[in-house]
Amino acid sequence: VLATLEERGFAKATHAAPDTPSTLVLKPMLWLSKLVALLFHPLKGLRRQTAKATPMSNIVGLLENQGFGNVDQEELKALLQQFQLCVFVPRQLIAPSDIGEQLACFPTLLPPMTLEEVARATSSQHAWVGRRFFTAREQDSIPPSFMTLALGQLVKVLSGPLVPRCGAVLAKAGDCHVLVALCGDEVPNAVSGFDVLVS
Fold it and tell me: φ, ψ for residue 105 (rounded to 5)?
């Protein structure tokens, strides 16, 4: 029954941890719309962040203050991940000298990446090489969750500092620096491709 409800969009089951009971969200699109409206509200939400990520406790406090009800931090974390709204990053990847709870990174709330940031983070004299990937059809667009998915995959293989930004993420994996960035504006208000560069 649950599988049928999920397939038709009437419910969404999430797990805070593999061995824990699932949390069932009814009418997930309505619930998600309310959550996104609070998180990204221009005045009351997280706003555009100058920092690279946000402590989970700040997000819980924001939602509770805006009347979202009692929020379980682990359940909310699982929901944010499964709905691909953000990526949870070890604090030491954002600030190497810090330890503590994981930070929630919302790529769409971050400022764009600058060339100065790339130069400062890499301090490398090696050339950048890579490929540009486009959608199969010109009228198609890269999905909005792409940077969240790309950041989530990079976090799994990182060996050094992480610089997430809106539309781009710079990371160190092994002895290489990796830059993933959206590109293409042939179609208005759409992103038709992305670059993967290695130095």
Answer: -110, 115
